[in-house]
Amino acid sequence: MCRVFAGQDPEGYRQINRSIRIDGHSTSIQLEGTFWALLDEIADSQGLTTPKFISKLYDEAIEINGAIPNFASMLRTTCALYLRGHRPEMDELTPKREAA
């Protein structure tokens, strides 16, 4: 077995619960420590706190898809996409100005 995977720090896969306010409701999300660290990194790269990033992601996903069957899984796949090099385009991060 590959020691890189088998010998990893158990803290990385320890389940951690965080309470976050989404759409005006307090909710608890349970993810492994590694995913929380990645979400912190993603949020920081966009100039947001992790709770603000998660709330914004939730709102945008609802707007696009109408529903999210498993939000914790969506957060994990968000981390996978990030690790694969998917990043928002700069124009997506900049608020659009409304025409006067």
Uncertain runs are: 96-100
Quaternary assembly: single chain
Alpha carbon gyration radius: 16 Å
Give the termini distance in whole angstroms. 63 Å
Structural account:
This protein has 100 residues and is an alpha+beta fold. The chain is built from 5 helices and 2 strands, in the order H-E-E-H-H-H-H. The protein has helices at residues 3-6, 33-45, 50-65, 71-83, 90-93, and strands at residues 15-22, 25-32.
SSE diagram, text form:
Layout: H1 3-6, E1 15-22, E2 25-32, H2 33-45, H3 50-65, H4 71-83, H5 90-93
Antiparallel strand pairs: 1-2
Helix pairs in contact: 2-3, 2-4
Give a brief description.
This protein is an alpha+beta fold.
What characteristics describe this protein?
5 helices, disordered C terminus, 100 residues, alpha+beta
